[in-house]
């Protein structure tokens, strides 16, 4: 039986938010671009990594993507990117419901490989965490051990008393390497069961299987 924990640290994308890239597809149709072009220019370019560790702001990165697309496909592309920029993914209502039951019991942080847009996105979706750690603010991204240690330090919780969940196995292994109780996220029902093992109390409604949102494989790096 796992030890009782003093806090939770959670991944964002794949747990609380799912990306279907509907905005990118809409922008590609408007601009006459081949499907997958925006993902390649946005997430497959070094500029995204720079934004993910805070060297560039989210706006600077988006402007860079826009400039490169316009240079290669024509200036008309600039007017077609609105749907891509306004798409903030879809929330998982079951996970948001679980979060509302967890937070009164232990502090909950979110650690995400992302730009500085995370706080605005959380407000957009109405999701509240006790601690928010975009990699852009930490200056380092997962799977660096420093990312996990820094988050634990800011939460004021020893790693041995902190549980971490992520849908990326590499990040789970990295979290374990610094002493966190780290688990691979495979769905809300199993997540709830694990939380009970860790000593948290949840209502019976979370024992029932609720169909999860369909998660698409993302060609870029929306994960994290």
TL;DR?
This protein is α/β, with parallel strands linked by helices. The chain contains 11 helices and 7 strands. The protein has a 5-stranded parallel β-sheet.
Number of domains: 2
State the secondary-structure class: alpha/beta
Which topology of the largest domain does CATH recognise?
Rossmann fold
The average pLDDT is 92
Spatially, the strands of the biggest sheet line up as 5-4-1-6-7
CATH hierarchy, class of the largest domain: Alpha Beta
What are the low-pLDDT stretches, counting only 5+ consecutive residues below 50?
210-220
What is the percent of helical residues?
40-55%
Describe what you observe in this structure.
With 224 residues, the protein is of the alpha/beta class. The chain has two domains: 7-18 and 89-207, 3-Layer(aba) Sandwich (Rossmann fold), CATH 3.40.50.1000; 22-86. Helices cover 43% and strands 12% of the residues. The protein is built from eleven helices and seven strands. It has helices spanning 22-31, 37-43, 46-52, 58-73, 82-86, 93-102, 118-125, 135-138, 145-155, 169-177, 188-197; strands at residues 7-10, 17-18, 90-91, 108-112, 131-134, 162-166, 181-184. The protein has a five-stranded parallel beta sheet. Strands 2-3 form a two-stranded antiparallel sheet. Strand 6, helix 10 (169-177) and strand 7 form a beta-alpha-beta unit. It is elongated and about 60 Å long.
How is the secondary structure organized here?
Elements: E1 7-10, E2 17-18, H1 22-31, H2 37-43, H3 46-52, H4 58-73, H5 82-86, E3 90-91, H6 93-102, E4 108-112, H7 118-125, E5 131-134, H8 135-138, H9 145-155, E6 162-166, H10 169-177, E7 181-184, H11 188-197
Parallel strand pairs: 1-4, 1-6, 4-5, 6-7
Antiparallel strand pairs: 2-3
Helix pairs in contact: 3-4
């Amino acid at each position: 039986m796992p030890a009782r924990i003093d806090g939770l640290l959670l991944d964002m994308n794949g747990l609380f938010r799912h990306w279907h890239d509907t905005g990118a597809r809409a922008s590609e149709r408007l601009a006459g671009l081949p499907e997958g072009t925006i993902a390649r220019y946005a997430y497959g370019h070094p500029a995204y990594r720079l934004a993910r560790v805070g060297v560039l702001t989210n706006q600077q990165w988006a402007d860079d993507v826009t400039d490169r697309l316009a240079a290669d496909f024509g200036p008309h592309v600039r007017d077609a990117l609105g749907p891509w920029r306004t798409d903030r993914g879809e929330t998982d209502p079951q996970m948001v419901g679980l979060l509302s039951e967890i937070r009164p019991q232990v502090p909950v942080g979110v650690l995400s490989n992302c730009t500085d847009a995370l706080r605005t996105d959380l407000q957009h979706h109405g999701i509240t965490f006790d601690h928010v750690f975009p990699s852009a603010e930490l200056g380092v991204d997962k799977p660096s051990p420093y990312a996990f240690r820094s988050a634990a330090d800011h939460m004021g919780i020893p790693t041995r008393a902190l549980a971490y969940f992520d849908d990326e196995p590499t990040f789970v292994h990295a979290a374990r390497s610094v002493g966190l109780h780290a688990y691979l996220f495979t769905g809300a029902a199993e997540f709830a069961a694990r939380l009970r093992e860790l000593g948290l109390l949840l209502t019976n409604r979370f024992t029932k299987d609720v169909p999860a949102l369909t998660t698409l494989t993302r060609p870029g790096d929306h994960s994290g």
